[in-house]
Automatic annotation (TrEMBL):
NCBIfam families: P_ylase (TIGR02093)
GO annotation, cellular component aspect: cytoplasm
SUPFAM superfamilies: UDP-Glycosyltransferase/glycogen phosphorylase
Record keywords: Carbohydrate metabolism, Glycogen metabolism, Glycosyltransferase, Phosphoprotein, Pyridoxal phosphate, Transferase
Residue numbers of N6-(pyridoxal phosphate)lysine PTMs: K676
Similarity section: Belongs to the glycogen phosphorylase family.
CDD domains for the chain: GT35_Glycogen_Phosphorylase
High-level lineage: Bacteria, Pseudomonadati, Pseudomonadota, Betaproteobacteria, Nitrosomonadales
Ubl conjugation keyword on record: no
Protein's recorded name: Alpha-1,4 glucan phosphorylase
């Protein structure tokens, strides 16, 4: 696709239509792109044509900044952060790029003059769903902050052809369909066919002695693929820095297998190509044990080796010796998904660069840092040895060697404690033997961090305790944060304007400035404007809910929201127990004076997670009964928003009154939705879990609805023979709720449908819903009471925003830069 080269506005002020920022330059650029890229003119252009013409207009301006950034980095040769993550959830790009570049207004006007509504183009964009949830979204917030803080950084990952599945709700059930996000093309990406690397798999290794008498290893793979770079520019806010998200797409090593082709096996040759591409075909949903293990390990190796080879290519251009690789690059492992990088870097240094073991190990251990994102045992990755051996024979050899040297050290340190070596070993020796990726990550990294204070503490006390005792100096905490650009400015423009007017500009990149709001918390006029902003977002969400679900909700009701992945530990079903409790109260006394509430749920369940899917069914079943019940008379509404995404989140967070963060204490590593809600003035009802603890500390206990057992009490309760029955028998409201579910009331009389859920609650209740029920209900009653007092509520809401500054991802990234990566900003001037 060639674009014509007329880059100067004809007869204008010399502003290039490729780079100009004025309304006129943007208007001309848009028409130019519509004509020369899309081959359309205004009268016949589809929405897709117009969207793309605008995207290319914005992209041209991004590329301008990108080139300046590359030039700057080439000259300065700065230390660079490489973020390795199997998942990214960046959300739609258009709105954010316009905002970060500061050309929203001229663009809106330019389009208006052509009779086009900017919002409709922004709404049209399909987002890349290249992640499961919080972990992938955190990576995207980090990219935003890295660019905004002007830190040289590249984010590496996989360009899945199909991202996280699309969720439909049919007859109350989750139905998965494929996410064909690339179907209409992706205007934000730039393919780099010349940047590609070999990816070997399978086969065997050969050990030999070279002419100089040195020991060498050759890996003779069974197959070789290629990974090709596909780049997306990531612009910072109000700066010229454009960093790179470089995602790898798998291809056959040669477009067609010529050998097979020459033999006349044309179809065999094509099939080989197709098979190679399957590596980057689809993102695996998490919480689904066992499925696609082989392909997932392949994906991890695939993107890790391409990324490390890419860093080595860049490193060569600096002229620095390979022994100083770790001075040029600092590589963050986003969970254990890229942990194979420890063995892969060793392999590249030993087998390709012929470093001796100790030097290679020194470089490796000074390159990587590891972030742990979960304490859940099922999420700690382990690979069966035979699988590992068959795919990555050379890596397994290297891992054995790393392990044997490491265990020697351990035995020396703890000569009378043989169990400890077993516990610390990379290899889990209980049959069938496994490779523990978290152990490989800990041993190969110079820093290890959790994602909230409580989580980092629990890591040291539980899953990584032996490592902590061995290397306490490696352990850190980096409490998560989220970007205020997307989650405040872009999704809540009314709030943005009010903040600008009250505090002036600057808070968007220095969120602590929100403290200035405290002075206005009791000002009745300010309070009134605050409520108007919220009211306007609630109306907007009501419109979306109507469009998506056909349900009418009332903006004057309390919006009580829980959006996140569906998981037992997140306890969406505890929320349901409350809804049914309120329902029963109304049924017992239809004249009851009750605060009208709209309960909004959203989130996907892993396709193979039966209990989570049953929870979705129950939410929809309760919605069906409650929403149409005449006694309820609209005072309770329940909505399940299908296919929750970043885009949908941008409607939801600003509209919420109450944010539900009700996980069993000790289970949610951090949570980030909790921060997005609070930034938009929602009040939290939550347990002392993850980052809730710190949010509560900062916003003030009196502005946070706390309930439930803390992490210590949870472990004690479980250790001392927890008996959910006792709670059931002791609490009449609870008993009524459970009995109603069990009776088949929400399943048209079918008592079996929700039986597994009821049985689990009564017999095991591993997530302690029944233990927390009474306190939760009492706390929800306090929420209602507070909502009846608008002055008090608004004050609490304002103070939440005023004191949420710490939870900007800018703060998190600044801490990573200072404490782990040791990198400095490198400002970029526009060429
Ligand atoms: C997660 C945790 O479950 C979240 O609590 C956390 O906020 C997020 C980012 O650190 O990481 N871990 C995970 O595997 N998925 C997540 O969302």
């Amino acid at each position: 696709m060639t674009k014509h080269n007329n880059t100067t506005k004809p007869g204008g002020n010399g502003e290039s239509i490729r780079t100009g920022m004025s309304e006129e330059a943007i208007r001309l650029a848009f028409l130019d792109n519509l004509f020369y890229v899309q081959g359309r003119f205004l009268e016949v252009a589809s929405l897709d044509d117009k969207y793309k013409a605008l995207a290319y207009t914005v992209r041209d301006r991004l590329l301008h900044r990108w080139v300046s950034t590359i030039r700057t980095y080439q000259q300065a040769n700065p230390r660079t952060v490489c973020y390795l993550s199997a998942e990214y959830l960046p959300g739609p790009f258009m709105g954010l790029n316009l905002l970060n570049m500061g050309i929203e207004e001229p663009t809106r006007k330019a389009l208006q003059s052509l009779g086009i509504d900017l919002e409709s183009l922004i709404a049209y964009e399909q987002e890349p769903g290249l992640g499961n949830g919080g972990l992938g979204r955190l990576a995207a917030c980090f990219m935003d902050s890295l660019a905004t803080l002007q830190i040289p950084a590249t984010s590496y990952g996989i360009r899945y052809e199909f991202g996280i599945f699309q969720q439909d709700i049919r007859n109350g059930e989750q139905v998965e369909t494929t996410d064909n996000w690339l179907h209409y093309g992706n205007p934000w990406e730039v393919r780099r066919p010349q940047i590609s690397y070999d990816v070997k798999i399978g086969g065997h290794t050969e050990h030999y002695t070279n002419e100089q008498g040195l020991h060498r290893v050759r890996w003779v793979p069974h197959e070789t693929f290629r990974g090709v770079a596909i780049d997306t520019p990531i612009l910072g806010h109000d700066v010229n820095t454009v960093n790179l998200m470089r995602l790898w797409r798998a291809e056959a090593a040669e477009a067609l297998d010529f050998h097979a082709f020459n033999e006349g096996d044309y179809y065999g040759a094509v099939l080989r190509e197709v098979r190679s591409e399957t590596i980057s075909k689809v993102l695996y949903p998490n919480d689904a044990p066992e499925i696609g293990k082989r392909l997932r390990l392949l994906q991890q190796h695939f993107f890790v080796t391409c990324s490390l080879q890419d860093m080595m290519r860049v490193h060569r251009t600096t002229g620095m010796p390979i022994e100083r690789f770790h001075e040029k690059f600092t590589v963050q492992l986003n969970d254990t998904h890229p942990a194979i990088a420890v063995a892969e870097l060793m392999r590249l240094l030993l087998d390709n660069h012929h470093l001796d073991w100790d030097t290679a190990w020194h470089v490796t251990r000074h390159t990587f840092a590891y972030t742990n994102h979960t304490l859940l045992p099922e999420a700690l990755e382990k690979w069966p040895i035979p699988l590992f051996q068959s795919l990555l024979p050379r890596h397994l050899e290297i891992i054995y060697e790393i392990n044997s040297r490491f265990l020697d050290e351990v035995r020396q340190r703890y000569p009378f404690d043989p169990d400890r070596a077993q516990r610390l070993s990379i290899i889990d020796e209980t049959l069938p033997r496994h490779v523990r990726m978290a152990h490989l990550a800990c041993i190969g990294s110079f820093a290890i961090n959790g994602v909230a204070e409580l989580h980092s503490q629990l890591l040291k006390e539980t899953v990584l305790r032996d490592f902590y005792e061995l290397w306490p100096e490696k352990f850190q905490n980096k409490t998560n944060g989220v970007t205020p650009r997307r989650f405040m400015l872009l999704s809540n423009p009314g709030l943005g304007s009010l903040l600008n007017e009250t505090l002036g500009h600057g808070w968007e990149t220095d969120l602590e400035q929100l403290r200035g709001l405290e002075a206005h918390a009791d000002d009745p006029a300010f309070q009134e404007r605050w409520r108007q902003v919220k009211r306007q977002r609630k109306e907007a969400l009501a419109g979306e809910v109507h469009k998506l679900c056909g349900i009418d909700i009332t903006p004057t009701s309390l919006y009580d929201v829980q959006v996140k992945r569906i998981h037992e530990y997140k306890r969406q079903h505890l929320n349901l127990l409350h809804i049914i409790t309120l329902y029963n109260r109304i049924k017992r006394n239809p004249a009851l004076d009750i605060v009208p509430r709209t309960f909004i749920f959203g989130g996907k369940s892993a396709p193979g997670y039966a209990m989570a899917k049953l929870i979705i069914r129950l939410i929809n079943a309760v919605a069906e009964m409650v929403n149409r019940d005449r006694d309820v008379a609209g005072r309770l509404k329940v909505v399940f928003l299908p296919n929750f995404s970043v885009k949908l989140g941008q409607w939801v967070y600003p509209a919420a009154d109450i944010s539900q963060q009700i996980s069993t204490a000790g289970k949610e590593a951090s949570g980030t939705g909790n921060m997005k809600f609070s930034m938009n003035g929602a009040l939290t009802i939550g347990t002392l879990d993850g980052a809730n603890v710190e949010i509560r500390e900062d916003v003030g206990a009196e502005n946070f609805f706390l309930f439930g057992l803390d992490a210590d009490a949870v472990s004690h309760t479980l250790a001392n023979g927890y008996r959910p029955w006792d709670y059931y028998n002791a609490n009449q409201e609870l008993k009524d709720v459970i009995d109603l579910i069990a009776s088949g009331f929400f399943a048209h009389g079918d008592r079996s449908l929700f039986q597994p859920l009821v049985d689990h609650l009564l017999q095991h209740d591993s997530y302690l819903l029944l233990a927390d029920y009474a306190d939760y209900i009492a706390c929800q009653d306090q929420v209602s009471a507070a909502y009846r007092d608008p002055q008090r509520w608004t004050r609490m809401s304002i103070l939440n925003v005023a004191r949420i500054g710490k939870f900007s991802s800018d703060r998190t990234i600044a801490e990573y830069c200072r404490d782990i990566w040791k990198v400095q900003p490198v400002p970029v001037k526009l060429d």
